[in-house]
Amino acid sequence: MNKNSSNTMALAPNTSNKRETVCIFGTGDFGRALGHKMIQSGYPVVYGSRSTQISNLIPKDAEVLGHAEAAQKAAIIIIAIQRQHYNFLTPLAEVLRGKVLVDISNNLKLNQYPESNAEYLAQLLPGSKVVKAFNTVSAWALQSGTLDASRQVFVCGDDVEAKQMVMNIVRALGLTPLDKGSLLAAQEIENYPLQLFPMWRFPMFLSLGLTAFFFFYCVALDIIYTYIYENNDFSFFIAITIPNRVCPVMALILLALVYVPGIFAAIIQLYRGTKYRRFPDWLDKWMLCRKQLGLIALAFASLHVVFTLVTPLRAFASWRTGKGIISQALNNKTEPLDHTKAWLSDSYLALGILGFFLFVLLGITSLPSVSNNVNWREFRFVQSKLGYMALILCTAHTMVYGGKWFLSPSAYKWYLPNIYILSLIVPCAVLVVKFVLIFPCVDKPLTQIRQGWERNPKYSE
Amino acid sequence: MNKNSSNTMALAPNTSNKRETVCIFGTGDFGRALGHKMIQSGYPVVYGSRSTQISNLIPKDAEVLGHAEAAQKAAIIIIAIQRQHYNFLTPLAEVLRGKVLVDISNNLKLNQYPESNAEYLAQLLPGSKVVKAFNTVSAWALQSGTLDASRQVFVCGDDVEAKQMVMNIVRALGLTPLDKGSLLAAQEIENYPLQLFPMWRFPMFLSLGLTAFFFFYCVALDIIYTYIYENNDFSFFIAITIPNRVCPVMALILLALVYVPGIFAAIIQLYRGTKYRRFPDWLDKWMLCRKQLGLIALAFASLHVVFTLVTPLRAFASWRTGKGIISQALNNKTEPLDHTKAWLSDSYLALGILGFFLFVLLGITSLPSVSNNVNWREFRFVQSKLGYMALILCTAHTMVYGGKWFLSPSAYKWYLPNIYILSLIVPCAVLVVKFVLIFPCVDKPLTQIRQGWERNPKYSE
Amino acid sequence: MNKNSSNTMALAPNTSNKRETVCIFGTGDFGRALGHKMIQSGYPVVYGSRSTQISNLIPKDAEVLGHAEAAQKAAIIIIAIQRQHYNFLTPLAEVLRGKVLVDISNNLKLNQYPESNAEYLAQLLPGSKVVKAFNTVSAWALQSGTLDASRQVFVCGDDVEAKQMVMNIVRALGLTPLDKGSLLAAQEIENYPLQLFPMWRFPMFLSLGLTAFFFFYCVALDIIYTYIYENNDFSFFIAITIPNRVCPVMALILLALVYVPGIFAAIIQLYRGTKYRRFPDWLDKWMLCRKQLGLIALAFASLHVVFTLVTPLRAFASWRTGKGIISQALNNKTEPLDHTKAWLSDSYLALGILGFFLFVLLGITSLPSVSNNVNWREFRFVQSKLGYMALILCTAHTMVYGGKWFLSPSAYKWYLPNIYILSLIVPCAVLVVKFVLIFPCVDKPLTQIRQGWERNPKYSE
């Protein structure tokens, strides 16, 4: 390393109190990227490799030695090799005794092996201190410096001191370490980069299922029924008209479903007279995916807004407008303004706009950087007060819009209700129960329970 | 704790260099949640409780002892009990001498007691080192792991070492400690979770007041006047037409108000010839709520955009369109395209769209995570250059829109100007003064003053 | 400091284990703001100044002494004076020996001096340990507490211990230190606050150039051609019609350009048979500005959406609608609904809406706080899968929209194609090549190469 010391100056400090040397086993992609980053942050780096011939891909301020020789130079050894080659480390057990081994490996599938890679490494080398880290960081991100996806580095390990040493390195590289406990957490950490939106799975499937149901319901009522009984071909409704019926219905139902678990929780707490018993599992899970449900509802609402706003641009809409005007013109008369109609149309539009506006506010507040900047009281105010206000406005929007058809028999094709009626069931139920829950005679005991009061204190022993 | 050591392994490290034991007084919600999280992060936890009978709610790897016994096992004791029960700690004063007591309590009202809870605790136990922390974190968030609202933990205390120990625990739990100074800051920290958007209060009240004023102004001119003098019932204008007049007016005025304090500051600095004197208080406060004013203005602008875009969907609009076309048809003639009208209508729409686009850009840049990723020069470029550009475009949009009515006497019902004229006063004043301020003969001395030059250096003694 | 100790209590700890004293040379804006913040965080602060007369602008809990005297009181000295006055420190060399000097200076221009200010300081005082820090923080932000722009403090220095001391102070002030290595990084750190969106420069110039080209292309074909050959004055098209032709074209081309470098990279890797050779420089740079290209494309797409949605509000549009309806009315007949037209119009609107929806999702995921919360697999899923889906939908939208004119000779004014045809070249090429690349016979070797396999392993020596 002293040979090209003039060059080293640019990266490594030139004073005596250097950072401790770090050893990296393996000169693959990630090993090289990590070494490069470490040299930038002032760590002397030595690579352990089968061939000590210096490749031009390895950072030029790093040394390359044999495995045993390299390991002796450092207290921390980063194992940048794949799990299937771990057993070649067994002969080195003596050299690695007492050293901190950092397992950075990932698997290709969830739970690929019975035990995590880090635990397997710890079993192979019981004399070393194994720490799991860096597996969620990508080589590309380290190299390019654009750490767009997650700066968080999950760290776990049984030896607190070893863990601390690794966390200090993580911090020095400009990343954020997050201590996940003992090495048993390694399985979870290794599964993490293989996950694909686990919190979104249930809300996604639920929405897809409901969307498919409502879509075919509408196709049946609006296209097939019309074709059979009125002999009109409205198959082009599939592109805009029907999506624009399904989207608002989905938005309203999903928004209401966000508030259902809170209501269940209140009822359960009131019934049990204590908050010190766990909710059933399904309720806990439902509560944890409320944010996702709400955001999917917001996506549907946004689509509904755009689908509605393009209406005047549709060939069908301009044809219908023209037809109406021409029939008036041919009858030589101008219809006067229908004030009820004007009131109704303006009201449901205004209600919808305000509801959507609050809904977007809710969405913005759920952005991580925004919600990090509010305190709990503010967060609850927005998510609960504004959320209920949005639900009330959107429900009213739907009711005013559909009011005129509610009692008209022509709206019940094949004796089935229009989907906007179906969409009102959940939100109306939520609002009615919530209205009951805010009555003082119900609200007061509930508040007491939530502050720790128990109707039957024996329960919690 | 040794009894179920097989189970403990999953959470606590099994090596000798354990983290220091933490004691928690109180087995309420927050005490349990915090204990659970600490065990996960490798801290041995011991609860101090009146009844040492183990509840199944307490994390199973924690010990439960009497208060005195538990306190002896740890250097740090978290006081998870309510302020009104603090006096039961007095008999324990000897055991707690020299220990770090972490006050995590909150009050129900702002400034509920003359002194903060943490200071009260410090007075009760003068031999202990009291640190305030964790009061802004919720038990629910700790338990569910979803720290959506704020990861920040405000810490304060008179003993720097004690504070450092607590901050290390905060970091180990994956939270971000923020040192707020000595224990006198505890009052502020205890008030923090009770605050409800304090920075938004003034901008909110201002907007509500102005909105109400302009709303009734419009109702008077557009509905009542028309009803009295023209006998037309346009009461349905309340839903969309009038909101869509008030929103753009509010957006323009509030956007201009964002730039007023900067202009005042420049004038004051020019007049005083120095930047080393404090601005008047009202100006300081105004400057600190510019972001909030701007975001409220953006909300009004967004509402204006949606209210405008739904116009063609309104029953009133289609009736009016139909009426115009039918009257042409009945007269058997087609009016040629009015080029001036086409130019005007397209210009004000284009100006409005571009202004709104810049406005949304400003809004996005003010998201915490985005503004954290730009440097000051970039931030100022966006907020000042792009902001003024947005103001110019929006003012021009309003002028082109209203130009044709400006001199028409019919626009002055009851001798009152149309509100779009009122809305132009502040923005035009801002733009004119700003235009003067960028003249070199004014800009040069101002820049010098801002770089530290003083016209009359004696002033700052 | 003891004089007004009753007041000091509020800010500084009153116990024996105080934080170490910090000395600040210079009582300018930034020196005062930093001192104030430090006192709040419990650091005793002493100012070194030419005049020891206490100004009322200096935080009142700070001492003011002569330079030498002040320097003796602290281990860390913050040099809050401008580079041109650094030489006055030379006589103090003996006093400053071994001390940590924090250089916080900035320049007015990029690379103003041959060496960075911090290196210059280190040359002047070789016995001191110079650390660069705090230069990206603004005095205004420190004072007002609103650290909207960047909490990050870049730190560099040759002495690791000194750097650590400074980083601890940074953390105590509630800011985030980021270690950038040895003092040679000072130049980069000093240039940082002078940069104006360096990553955006190339994408911006590219978009401006292309926009200008397409704008004049459209003006020529739609306004000048029409004026010359059809004698129609459509000059008002400049405001909305032409921008609304240029925006979608720009959005589509830029979105496609986001995916071009990935395709080039795949082809290069396939051709070379290894991933261990660097890409050409232009490709690396292109890859690093993909996010910016995508966001500019999203801006154009959003403008296109709004420009399209205001269509019905334009005087020209209502004139054209009226004309069509009147001509039907005067001919005494109503045209039946043209199903093909209805299908086409609804399809391209629906495709455009869905494409834009996915595009906005991509934009939201690229917000720093959102992308920090997803793992790499999720990030790639969104940016690659959803991105290609958006590209496919938008390309289909353009094709369905323009399909009817594709073969019509009237669309080729002056033998030039309509711009929507030009806009399809890049996206179609990208989609075709991508389609080839996902064939198993091509995808399999590519995947192997990306996992480290080399066709000709000798290459990487």
Automatic annotation (TrEMBL), chains A, B, C:
GO molecular function ontology, one term from the record: ferric-chelate reductase (NADPH) activity
Q: Which segments constitute the Pyrroline-5-carboxylate reductase catalytic N-terminal domain?
A: 21-107
Gene Ontology biological process terms from the UniProt entry: copper ion import; iron ion transport
Protein's name in the database = STEA4 Metalloreductase
Spans traversing the lipid bilayer: 205-229, 249-271, 292-310, 347-365, 386-407, 419-442
Just give the chief location class.
membrane
Family matches, as PANTHER family: DUDULIN-RELATED, METALLOREDUCTASE STEAP4
Catalytic reactions of this protein: 2 Cu(+) + NADP(+) + H(+) = 2 Cu(2+) + NADPH; 2 Fe(2+) + NADP(+) + H(+) = 2 Fe(3+) + NADPH
Family affiliation: Belongs to the STEAP family.
* Cofactor(s) for this UniProt protein: heme b; FAD
Q: Where is the Ferric oxidoreductase domain?
A: 249-394
Localisation per UniProt entry: Endosome membrane
A Pfam family that the UniProt record links to this protein: F420_oxidored
